[in-house]
Amino acid sequence: MPSITSIIEELSGALSAAANGCGYSADNVGATVGISxxxxxxxxxxxxxxxxxxxANPSDIALNIVKKIERQKFVKKVTVESGYINxxxxxxxxxxxxxxxxxxxxxxxxxxxxxxxxxxxxxxGVNPVHPWHIGQLRNAILGDAIANMHEKCGYSVERQDYxxxxxxxxxxxxxxxxxxxxxxxxxxxxxRFDYSIGEIYVASHKLLEENPERKSxxxxxxxxxxQDGTYESKLSREMCEGYLEAERKxxxxxxxxQDVVIWEGDIVRQMLVEKMLEILEKKGxxxxxxxxxxxxxxxxxxxxxxxxxxxxxxxREDAKVLIRNDGTATYLAKDIAFxxxxxxxxxxxxxxxxxxxxxxxxxxxxxxxxxxxxxNFGSSDMAITLTDIRQNFxxxxxxxxxxxxxxxxxxxxxxxxxxxxxxxxxxxxxxxxGTWIGYTADDLLREARERAHKAIKPNAELSxxxxxxxxxxVGLGAVKFEMLKxxxxxxxVFSWDKALNFEGNSGPYCQYTYARATRIxxxxxxxxxxxxxxxxxxxxxxxxxxxxxxxxxxxxxxxACREGRPNSITDYLIDLAALFSKFYxxxxxxxxxxxxxxxxxxxxxxxxxxxxxFMLSILGIEVIERM
Length: 627
Known about the structure:
The chain is built from 22 helices and 16 strands.
């Protein structure tokens, strides 16, 4: 399918060849070619660049270049105005080609650039000690969108979660359950497990802060949790499985599904860290000083890293610790070992079993465990992980170490997407302080639905049940779009006024334009022949602007996938919806006197509708047929 961007690329090549044919030196021609805002559809300023070097008239140079340009597909004529080379597209043939392809491929829009390479996306990774709050929700929504982007671009995607069942927070929560009578937590109350363990965790943290001498008890619990067969290890697994089952309900309510959950405890049992350390030691990457600041620790000296990136320069610390002097592994050590498994660089005998037989999307959720069977998880071509930006440095170290051991090409298979924290207009959230209480991801979705129900205009044609379903989709779409429309590394202050704005820059606005397009097609009652689009139907600037924007959908999806930025999709959708609204206001679609022209406009509406639905699906947002 042609697109305005593909035509620009082809014209850049033709311009470069024409300029060289005139004896002009022409490099980086693409930077001088873009969509025109005045004359023609595409404009080029190359003549000015050459004129400056030659000290000549730009218009004369432009005319010389135009004489040498070979005829290009979809270009109707080329003109020169004040030194600019302007390309006027054959609007009829370009529009016909774009619309025909999109309507014919309506059930299979997307790209095949991924060529079925396996991509592993790890996201959520919530400590099993409280329900999701909105900061962790951003991780889940971002991860889901990034997985969707790769899937739509032709990659084979494995969606993975990580359960930190051996972390300090899990130990604190487990200690709390073992001392529940000391916490003052209401017992016997009917509530979901992730909420009850969250209350226990907050109360435990408070008690330990007031009695710091008892923190040694938590360290002892953590040590016993890491030993197979102990009461604490069994109780910890039960606690975390209860949490996982409960948090899935939140995930499902947001339409977020995964393929497999990897447990830290199983990573320890598979001795991944020990295997990793053996590999690093053989490569001479690690050291174990006998005394000093790092005495009896296993470390990587930063000064030993060849071609160190600028992020490692000027740091206060001179080494990264993998194994502490008490023999415990740091998060960095576990991450390096885990990524080796993700990329198929280290052998394991993980066993998997079905934790949930059938998720709402129809697929099973698997998990590692002491029993089960071997499966084809891991061993990916690329491993993507999402954490907040405060872990950027650690994730960079993982990539550096993989590069030192296996080379730069393997290291390029590691991708970290760091995201900024999310706060409400009332402030940030923190698990151990309990400030998530009363504003969890569940609370956010519940309020979104309530607000959406009030915001949607009454429609006598809709039943009460239909209105509720629409409000659910609008509310969920509003939250997801608001979480995704900012570039990942930037922080978000969540605003209801912005999220539920039906006038623009929001998920509901995009859903509304889709519903409007659907309504137009319903009212038309036409079975249009998209192979016979009228030649002059797209001479209207607003109509053709919409065609050009629609033509870019595939490249925008690929760009977002390549850069790991779902906000590229939201930006595109906002522009697409705005152009459709402008087109709708300026073109009397259902009142066109010519039957052929009317059907041509309906074909354009249909192609807009297909692209809007496809791009929203990348963000995990459902369309609404009527509103």
